[in-house]
Amino acid sequence: MPAASAAVSSDLSPAVVPADFAARVVGWQRVHGRHDLPWQNTRDPYRIWLSEIMLQQTQVSAVIEYFQRFIGRLPTVAALAEASADEVMALWAGLGYYSRARNLHRCAKAVMSEHGGVFPTDPEVLVTLPGIGRSTAAAVAAFSAGVRSPILDGNVKRVFARFFGIHGHPGVKAVENRMWQLADAVLPAKGPAQAEDMVSYTQGVMDLGATVCSRGKPACLAAAASCPLASDCVARREGLTGVLPTPKPRAAIPERSTVMLLVRRGREVLLALRPDSGIWGGLWSLPEMPVDTVPFDAELAEDAALERAREFGNPSTANMVGELTHVFTHFRLLIRAIRVDVAGLTARDAANGPALRWLSLDDLDAVGTPAPVRKLLEAQAQGGLF
DNA sequence: AATGCGGGGAG
DNA sequence: CTCCCAGCATT
User: Fold this and answer.
1) Which segments cross the bilayer (predicted)?
2) I need a labelling partner for A210 at 20 to 30 A (CA). Which of A38, A94, A155, A156 fits?
């Protein structure tokens, strides 16, 4: 299993970067790729740029209508530059990421004032314009002028992660850097066919990610012939399409804590019935105490436990017997357990009520208890801590 | 290096 | 419900 360091190695040996990578993608695109999207079949950098901005973090299906409407109303960069901010924002409304629209407007004005109204096709120039980053600059340059410059969007990251077996979330800088390195290394060869190949390759590597090397069930699993890269794709060979690309690490789930009472009367322990709604609804658990000191103070808690246990009998001793953590889907619960030994019965022996009962430690299977409570009870049954 | 930005679709 | 989508700008 490749270590994390493998994902960021700088090794670009030919063995892992097939010389015909781009050629395979190009050939596949011309037969199986998408050819009829509204921003294809043009070399107009304005239309290509507009589509690329709209497509940032936005799916193709959502963009199509917005693109048609926008072009219908503002068909040239000059028209966009002259339009009011209100009109631009109205055309964008509903697409999200509205800074894209503000930058779009600023960019059009900059093209008019700084580039004589001629949209640049040099990636190094494009990337200086508002809202155009490295990948968008490369896409505009490739589609409008066949410039040999790599894109790296979500589709490409997925294809690369799988084909090269790159572990680690692509949002991590080192992983992304590695992918940029590869994106440059696999580009179509320089030469007479470069411009047309760049158009097909740039479109193809995105089409591949969108239609074949999809996130859910990549088509290669059903039919290897559906992907031109299947024959030496690391993820396909090693059965890793389900784990690559590495998903974004989940946010740390919050931790809550509680104190549970192990109220002992000889071999018996007191259980409390949970309400039907909420966590562990309807299960028998242990009586709990509010935790009102931060940080937790064991001696205070033991004193409070002694006081609390007067409801259940005559308490003699209270001792922390341990703690354990139980992980739920949306939070982590730290459970501290305090054993309180009681003797005799009081007038308020609430165990006679419906929500409390005594249970023999020799008969744990008699009731349904949450897994962590079961662990506490089993430890009690064996007489020790846990 | 990590976050905010956003509405929508897929699983 | 979570994750992701033809990313970029800002901190």
Assistant:
1) none
2) A94
